[in-house]
Design a protein that fits this description.
Layout lengths: L1 H8 L2 H20 L8 E5 L12 E3 L15 E3 L5 E3 L17 H11 L3 E5 L2 H5 L9 E5 L15 E7 L9 H10 L5 E4 L3 E6 L2 H23 L39 E4 L8 H23 L3 H19 L15 H17 L5 H16 L10 H11 L3 E5 L4 H9 L12 E3 L9 H11 L7 E5 L2 H9 L3 E5 L14 E3 L6
């Protein structure tokens, strides 16, 4: 590694990374993110000849005027954080070069999230956003277009960013930053109260894009706060003057989710057998996906979306073949021809659907097929008649409602956005699918509780028709109710859970 590093230090990848960091520092200075020598940025030198674990890291120094930075001012570090190259001292009045105090924090994002770049901003909006509620543990916002620029989020999702407390020296933030990264697996940023924000991405482009979106959203939240508008709810109505305007910065409790008389802050709903008849899923949605998989793959074969779907299916099928899963057939390489690849894909997908597999690769493809069905009006979402009224009631009372289903998030949005009762997404704050975890595993519900930011998992009510899901959620500390609907599977005797036949009973 030492020999590789020596040649690497003088190579084109490191040279380009040095120049890039200097250019970005000048750009961020113009944005007001790194004034007064504050803030910093680091990127990995992208050398395709080396594995990711050996990519060197270029990092801007501390105490330097960011708008005057040049490539020679940069530190170069190994993948484990060892300084390999330092800038040369400049004559007075310049200070001697010093590696940024942010270095150990940057390394946490590299090591824990496999980041390709990390940006630390001191932008004023990042500070003010943490001051609106001094006790806040999180920043929350939903139904804003720029949320789509944050990895893993869409317009209808609730964006949650953890907030950690500031310390006199930045390196002292290392442990709390690491804890926040671990506790919020979906987050791509951490706010530091009265200080700024750390943003990471898998490349400098991704990190920069997300940083710009975060700053936009913070600025929007501050302006909406000044106008008395609540940015934490889908409709962005007036902030309830009867309550302290906790905004999206609640101390573990989303705005409007509870008051002194309420012990539950969030409701998480299963779909099949809970909000929607099993028959709709088994007799309408699954057959539509099965009958249209070949047509969909053929018509969209060259699209980036379908290429990603095929890659996920390939990986799943390879694993299934190793494990001897019945119905799995090898998928030939692309050069075998489009028809041969599609034939194998269809065979595997049909087998997966028949076995009712709860796997991400299948659910993602099904979601894309269902999208066509809903958009063409060949399908319309079905929910039980008590569901719309319950969603409206919970929404009006300030409760936040989420969906957790084995179907993809896109499929969930399609179903609730195209029901016989109209678009019900306005009453929903977010969607979880199997990318969060298997619905029968306790860890999945722990992850959800971390994303929702409640003080205790007991503040979340989960409603499902599946006993094993109920057990897993209860083990995670949720309150659980089992839904008894026509066509649902029988429950074990003495199961120990409260049951309902309608949401009106809650």
């Amino acid at each position: 590694m030492a020999t590789a590093s020596e040649s690497y230090l003088e190579g084109e990848a490191v040279r380009e990374a040095r120049e890039l960091v200097a250019e970005l520092c000048r750009h961020f200075y113009a944005q007001g993110w790194v004034t007064g020598t504050g803030g910093s940025i680091t990127v990995k030198a992208n050398d395709p000849a080396l594995p990711l674990a050996q990519q060197l890291i270029v990092m801007s120094p501390s105490g330097v005027q960011k708008e005057r930075m040049v490539a020679e001012d940069m530190y170069v570090m190994s993948a484990d954080g060892k300084v390999l190259s330092s800038p040369v001292s400049k004559p007075w009045p310049h200070k001697p070069p010093k590696c940024t105090d942010c270095a150990p924090l940057f390394m946490k994002a590299y090591l824990m999230r496999g980041a390709g770049a990390v940006i630390h901003s001191h932008g004023m909006e990042t500070c003010i956003a943490t001051m609106l509620d001094p006790g806040a543990k999180e920043f929350r916002i939903t139904h804003m277009e720029m949320i789509k620029g944050i990895k893993g989020h869409g317009y209808h999702d609730e964006l949650v960013i953890p907030i950690i407390e500031n310390t006199p020296y930045e390196y002292e933030l290392t442990d709390s930053l690491a804890e926040a990264i671990a506790a919020y697996p979906k987050a791509t940023a951490v706010l530091v109260r009265n200080h700024g924000i750390y943003v990471w991405g898998d490349s400098w482009i991704n990190a920069k894009t997300q940083a710009e979106c975060y700053h936009y959203l913070f600025d929007a939240a501050i302006k909406l706060y000044q106008l008395g508008i609540d940015w934490t709810t889908p409709e962005h109505g007036p902030i309830n003057s009867a309550k302290r305007p906790r905004s999206v910065l609640s101390s573990g409790v989303p705005n409007g989710c509870s008051d002194a008389k309420s012990s539950k802050h969030c409701v998480v709903l299963d779909i099949e057998g809970t909000t929607t008849p099993i028959s709709f899923v088994t007799d309408v949605m699954f057959p539509y996906a099965r009958d249209n998989v070949r047509k969909h793959l053929t018509s969209t074969y060259g699209s980036d979306e379908t290429k990603e779907d095929i890659n996920l299916l390939r990986a799943q099928v390879e694993e299934d073949l190793k494990n001897g899963i019945a119905g799995s057939v090898p998928i030939p390489p692309d050069d075998a021809g489009k028809e041969e690849v599609i034939n194998a894909l269809v065979a595997n997908v049909e087998s997966m659907i028949k076995a009712d597999r709860k796997i991400t690769s299948l659910k993602q493809l099904q979601g894309h097929i269902w999208r066509t069905g809903f958009e063409s009006k060949e399908m319309q979402g079905v929910v039980f008649e008590d569901v719309p009224e319950a969603l409206k009631h919970w929404h009006a009372s300030g409760m936040k409602v989420y969906i957790y289903s084995s179907g993809s998030r896109e499929a969930q949005r399609l179903l609730f956005g195209n029901t016989t009762y109209g678009d019900l997404r306005q009453y929903l704050c977010g969607f979880f699918d199997t990318t969060t975890g298997n619905k029968r595993e306790t860890r999945s519900y722990f992850e959800i509780s971390q994303s929702l930011g409640v003080d205790s998992p007991a503040q979340i009510l989960f409603i499902t028709d599946v006993f094993q899901e109920a057990v897993a959620a209860k083990s995670a500390g949720f309150e659980v109710i089992i839904s008894i609907r026509p066509g649902n599977a029988p429950l074990p005797e003495n199961h120990g859970f409260r049951t309902i036949k309608s949401f009106s009973e809650i």
